[in-house]
Amino acid sequence: MKRTLFGFSLALTLALPLFAQDKETERVENAGKVMEEILKAPDGIPQSVLDKADCVVILPSVLKFAIGIGGSYGRGVMTCRGGAKFHGPWGAPSMIALEGGSAGLQLGGNATDFILLLMSPRSAENILKSKVKLGADASAAAGPVGRAASAETDVTLRAEILSYSRSRGLFAGVSLEGSTLRPDNGANKNLYGKEVSASDIVFKKAVPVPASAKQLLATLQKASPVNKGK
Q: In angstroms, rounded to a whole number, what is the distance separating the alpha carbons of residues 101 and 5?
């Protein structure tokens, strides 16, 4: 009996890290699919806006919870252009978490995909280091929509973070002021199999690009190979 219980405990101990890694791998793969679908849409992110982004955050299938109280929680990935000045190719993803109140996330009961474009090095560096409240620690605004829309608007020029949502096939700019973004280093450990910080992933290339991120990075590299914001 003791031997059976020991064998079960050992099997469970070995299985849990694999399950956690599979979960994060699936999340990265889903982010790649969401990004590809949105960039193919005619009413998607304007090319001139994407070309000036230093980093992109993709949060697939965010759900609202605590109906009557409010609050939402979503997990996804953040990928940045390489190099200290974000001029290189898109790099290995860092896992990220979004937390917000109902005032910022009017989701109802629907799963919603979120895309956030980080338009300044300061916003990218701060999010990689600690929790950032949108609208307070970093200026945020609903992003312009339509492939031909211009990035040279007052709102776009002032905002450090531009945000979008897609629910039931409808894509639009959305305000996420009051929500917070933070590194999910527990998920990074699950994905990469070791302790590694979000900052080290992006700035020090501490881990290789996982196979699950190939679609996401290929999609972004094809759509926006050069940072035209500087």
A: 44
As a whole number, mean pLDDT of residues 125-143 equals 92
Question: Based on the structure, what is the number of domains in the chain?
Answer: 1
In a domain, 1, yes or no: no
This prediction has a pTM of 0.84
Residue 48 lies in a domain: yes
pLDDT tens digits, residue range 170-209? 899 988 888 899 999 999 999 999 999 999 999 999 999 9
Q: Who contacts 24 (Cβ-Cβ below 8 Å, separation ≥6)?
A: 95, 187, 190, 191
